[in-house]
Structures are given as structure tokens and as C-alpha cells.
Design goal:
Number of helices: 7
Mean pLDDT: 81
Helix content: 55-70%
Number of domains: 1
Length: about 130
């Protein structure tokens, strides 16, 4: 095999590996695994395993449950994000938000924009696989 062909093949393999690594990183950023004892359990009993699940769950959480966890005296979601995931910046940005949709938008922006648009495909594949 000529030297040029071997170099092209090596470069192509390196690109493929790099793309796989990027997908793994994006997936890890979205679906950061935590032990079950650190899952967020809503007042209704629904369990949330990560920030992506929280963003999706905000569509179906009853207003009364949301208000139980997020009100003028506390924001349990912000505390969970900061304490469990160590993301103080996101926790601080969501802490003053008292509206369910606004909270969801902030979380989705974090997942898709702050982490890079490559997350969009990884996230949608995860949702299709899970649901």
C-alpha cells in the first residue's frame, strides 16, 4: 500500500475516533450518571435522574408540585443541580426563576447551547431510546 494511502487511512481513522469521543463527551454532559440515592424525587413520587430528565419532566409536573419545590423561600431544583452535579453556575441562574416554562427553557438552553449543538442529536437519540 502506498505511503499516501496509509496516511489518508490513518487520518480517517483518527477523525472517526475523534467523532466517537465527541459523542461520548456530549452524552456524558447531558446524561451525567449519579447514584440512585442522589436522584431527585418529586413530591408526587416521580424520580428524576439527571438535568435532561428534569427539563423533560417540567412539561408534565403538576403546578402544585412545581410550586412545592420552587417558591419564594426555596428552589429545590437549583439546590439539586448545584449540590449533586456541582454546576453552581446553572444552579445560580435557575435559582431566582419561579416559572415552570422559564425553568425548562433555561435548562434546555444549558443542555443544547452551553454544551454545544452536537448535544442535540445525542439528546434526541436518548429520548427516543428511553421513551
Amino acid at each position: 500500500m502506498p505511503v499516501v494511502s496509509r496516511m489518508k487511512r490513518r487520518d480517517e481513522m483518527a477523525r472517526r475516533k475523534s467523532k466517537k469521543d465527541d459523542v461520548k463527551e456530549a452524552k456524558a454532559a447531558i446524561r451525567q450518571e449519579i447514584p440512585p440515592e442522589k436522584y431527585f424525587v418529586l413530591r408526587s413520587g416521580v424520580t428524576i435522574k439527571d438535568i435532561a430528565e428534569l427539563a423533560l419532566a417540567l412539561d408534565s409536573i403538576a403546578d402544585s408540585d412545581f410550586s412545592f419545590h420552587v417558591n419564594d423561600s426555596k428552589n429545590d431544583f437549583a439546590n439539586w443541580i448545584g449540590d449533586v452535579f456541582g454546576n453552581k453556575e446553572l444552579a445560580d441562574s435557575i435559582r431566582p426563576v419561579k416559572d415552570k416554562k422559564e425553568s425548562q427553557i433555561l435548562l434546555l438552553k444549558h443542555l443544547f447551547l452551553d454544551k454545544g449543538m452536537d448535544n442535540r442529536n445525542t439528546f434526541s437519540k436518548e429520548v427516543r431510546m428511553d421513551g
